[in-house]
Specification:
four-stranded mixed beta sheet; 60s Ribosomal Protein L30, Chain: A; 14 strands; Phosphoribosyl-aminoimidazole Synthetase, Chain A, domain 2; alpha+beta; seven-stranded mixed beta sheet; homodimer; globular
Chain lengths: 334, 334
């Protein structure tokens, strides 16, 4: 029985034991089958989407998820945002000597559960162990392959004047949940991260709004970062309406207490879509019929490029610039 | 000008600056093009090979390479070992606050150089920054996609009695080079790592020996680990001949000084192939015509399963078991 990860588990018989008694069984891979240097499989027809992300979140577990769930959702969402159907993922783990194996098992079970629920197969993986004090528990890097159906050509540069801005649900929950867990802050109620796989919601939106210009999940830097990226890449100004943006009361409270702008707080289960105005209602209605899209709404419009990239019409009718934070409001949020 | 990585470079405008002034230009990606959440491209016909690896080597630079070159070669080699033509890679970096940007630039240039030389495109990437003391300079996770030509079905479980064991070149150079660089050991001459992309050599071998059973690059655990993996998965005994195994004199010297077995020392540019006896000469000849295959030779034979997995016939005619090290001889060798 391995209770704690030792440097010894990074190679040779130690790694073999870790793989066959902990990693493969918990992640749900047949540990009797031979392990090849690469997985080989047939992809469905279509263009290939490919993405990668590493996850360094602290703490490793938080209300609504853990680094395992986050790593699967994050990669699935990046595929979903280009209109791809997620197909396969890889999981590479860098583990610090001393990691509690009970915690590792919980993380691996989250990876298994989330990938299974999403219908994505874990095709390959890698495990490294580094000396105590040279990492922070565990880092996970996931990559994903998806298939893009014909005719879909989404790009952050495709937004145009007159388009509508759709948001898939209430914002700020991931950032506040992680911050609360990290700092031991107690707000009135426990804030639960929105961490979720969005491919089904994205697919519903794309079917209802086939001329969608771009979609982007609002992770690091929150909605503010995503809206600025789209506005800059497309050469437009995006105008969003504060009254239209759903911010849960617990996020409002925490942000006002901490001096944060909810638009800059990270999400892990929300996306922004830019759609033609005439398809916007259908897009919202479609999102609302599926999981993680129940709070979808129209939050603004795309206008010809003005002086600034993103403007917010506040609840009291004034306008302010929505800027990108200069650095991390909250380091290691994902 | 960014001289040193700060936590601030992990998000928002700080990340944007790091990406556009350092990472994208050095890695050779057009930094004016919009960055999407995932790359979308058309793969050539054929089955898809998919692999991932993370690299935690210490020191980050060593004679013959650095973590950047290693991360590209390692992933290309895993694809090559299943008979795939490498097509695309992803690069995810976890950077410790305080990393010298001059060093980061050298690493990025190595990634660019090695991927370009190998004809593989860098399709996507990710950058995270963690606080000082929570990583070790930089960790890199790469994933790769390749295309497997029809009719190739290599597997570590396919070795059969009567097959020949081919080794692509002299062993032990990577491990000894890294150990020397790490510990400041001075051997008579500088030992240079064998770190290299092996897809062209593997392709040459597969064309000359179309019934090749399996190939595996001899990284962590060296040839000893690979031979044991093949023998166990295939239910055979592998007999190798000490006199036939090329070990450079500087590796012999270092191993005898340090009490290491050259068969257990890691390589990053050598592979073992199991081929039908009648194709073995052609396989060796083909390897010798291409880069990184000049030292190819036949080192043994596959026999029906006996009491042990791998046996070595020593130079003096005795036999000893070739075992897998119980843990890391040398932690963080890749």
């Amino acid at each position: 029985m391995i209770d704690t990860i030792l440097l010894n588990h990074g190679s040779g018989r130690g790694l073999d034991e870790l793989l066959h008694t902990v990693i493969l069984p918990e992640i749900g891979i047949d540990s009797a089958a031979p392990l090849e240097d690469a997985a080989v499989f047939t992809l469905p027809q279509g263009r290939c989407a490919f993405t990668t992300d590493s996850f360094v979140i602290r703490p490793l577990e938080f209300p609504g998820g853990d680094i395992g769930k986050l790593s699967v959702c994050g990669t699935i969402n990046d595929l979903a945002m280009v209109g791809a159907t997620p197909h396969s993922i890889s999981v590479a783990m860098i583990i610090e000597e001393g990691l509690d194996v009970a915690l590792l098992r919980r993380i691996l079970r989250s990876i298994r559960h989330e990938s299974k629920a999403a219908g994505v197969s874990i095709q390959c993986g890698d495990t490294k162990v580094v000396d105590r004090g040279k990492a922070d528990g565990i880092f996970i890097a996931t990559s994903g392959i998806g298939i893009v159906p014909p005719g879909r050509n989404l790009s952050v540069a495709n937004a145009g004047s007159g388009d509508a801005v759709v948001l898939s649900g209430p914002i700020g929950l991931h950032g506040i949940a992680v911050l609360s867990a990290r700092e031991g802050l107690n707000f009135a109620s426990t804030v639960v991260s929105d961490c979720a796989s969005l491919h089904r919601c994205a697919e519903a939106l794309l079917r209802a709004s086939p001329h969608t210009r771009t979609m982007r999940d609002a992770t690091r830097g929150g909605c503010a970062a995503v809206l600025n990226e789209i506005a800059e890449a497309s050469g437009v100004t995006i105008m969003v309406c504060e009254n239209a943006i759903p911010v849960p009361p617990e996020v409002v409270g925490a942000c006002s207490y901490l001096g944060l702008d909810p638009l800059q707080v990270a999400n892990e289960g929300r996306f922004v879509a830019i759609v033609p105005a005439e398809e916007a209602e259908a897009a919202v209605t479609a999102c609302r019929t599926v999981e993680h899209g129940g709070g979808a709404c129209i939050i603004g419009t795309v206008e010809p490029r003005g002086r600034v990239a993103v403007l917010l019409e506040t609840a009291i009718g004034s306008r302010r610039v929505v800027d990108v934070p200069s650095g991390d409001l909250l380091p290691r949020i994902c």
